[in-house]
Amino acid sequence: MESERKHLKAASLAHNRRARLGGNSYVGICLCVLLWGSSALAQSPQETAGSSSQQLSVQLLPGSISGTVVDPSGAAVAGARVGLTRESQPTNQEVRSGDGGQFSFVSVAPGPFQLTIAAQGFAPQSLSGILSPGETYNAPPIALVLATEKTEVQVVVPRVEIAEEQVKEEEKQPALGVIPNFYVSYIPDAAPLTSKQKFELAWRTTFDPVTFILTGAVAGAQQANNSFSGYGQGAQGYAKRYGADYADAVTNTFIGSALLPSLLKQDPRYFYKGTGSTESRILYAIANAVICKGDNRRWQANYSNILGSLAAGGISNLYYPAQDRSGAELTFENAAIGIGASAAANLLQEFIIRKLTPNTHTHDPAKPH
What we know:
Layout: H1 2-59, E1 63-70, E2 81-86, E3 93-96, E4 102-108, E5 111-118, E6 122-123, E7 125-131, E8 136-138, E9 142-143, E10 145-146, H2 159-171, E11 184-185, H3 195-206, H4 209-224, H5 234-264, E12 270-271, H6 278-287, E13 291-293, E14 299-301, H7 303-316, H8 328-353
Parallel strand pairs: 1-8, 1-9, 11-12
Antiparallel strand pairs: 1-4, 2-3, 2-5, 5-7, 6-10, 13-14
Helix pairs in contact: 3-5, 4-5, 5-7, 6-8, 7-8
C-alpha cells in the first residue's frame, strides 16, 4: 500500500510539472505570435511603399526606338526625315536617316508612339507602335513608295484663236438679219485683233452685198439732189457718184479700220456698253468716235479714226469734180463728217441696233459659261 501511494504521488507530481511546462510553452507561443505580428505591422507600410516606388520606377523607365528606311528595291534611303510623335509629349522629335538608312531615338518615354517618314521623291509613310518600359524597339525596315507624279496641265488658248472665235461670232450678228455689224463687240473684254484680222474685217465689210446696196442708195439720193453737179446726170453721173461714194467707204474702212489700227495698235471696234444711265451711255457712244481701246485693252485717243477720216478726205480730192474740190477745206470737212458719222453710228449701236440684232453674243465663246 505504501509503495502504491508513493507511485501515485510521483505520477501526480510529474503530471503537474508537464502541465506547467505545457502552459508555459503555450504562453510562449502566444507571445511569439504577438511579437511577430507587431513586427510585421510595424514593417508593412515601409515595405509596401518601397514596393510601389519600385513598380513606378519600372513603369517610367525610358526605352529607345530604331529602324531603317529603304526604297522599293530595298536600298537604303539616306537623309529621310523621321518624326516621332507621342501623345504624352506636346512637341515632336525629328531625326534624319543616316547613310545606311538607319535612325534612332533614345530616352523615349514608354507608351504609344507614331513614326512619320518623308523623303524627296517618295510618298510619306507612317508606323505606329507601343514602347514598353526599358524596351529597345527595333522597327521593321520601312519601305518607302515612289510618289505618284502629279502633272497639272493648263490649257491656254492662244490669243489669236480666241480673237478668231470672237470675230466669227461678230460676223453672225447682222442687224435685221442682213445688215453687216462686224465692227461692234458685245464682249467687254474681247481679245484684241491681229493685223490680219483687222484687214479681214475691212475686206469683209467693203465687199459685203449690203455695202454695195447702201452705196447705191446714197448715190441715188445725191443724184436726186444734184450733189456734186460736176458729175452730171443720167447713168454716167450716177456711176460717177456711186464710184466716189464707194471709194470713200473703201479708203475710210481700210485706212481708218485696218491700216492705221494695225500700225498704231488700236482696236477699230465699238464695245457695246448697255449699262448705266441713258446720259452716260450717250456720252460713251459719242466719245468713242474720238477714243478707242488699244490692243493693250486701255482707252486712248482714236488716232486711227481721226487720221483715217483726214486721209480719206484728202484722197477724195483726187476724184471729186473740180468745182467741188476745195483743198484742205474739203479734207477737214469730210474728216469732220466722218467723225460725226462715227458718233451717230455708235448711238445707233448703243440704243437701236442691239434690239434689231437677234444673234448678239454677250459671252466669250472661248470661255465656259
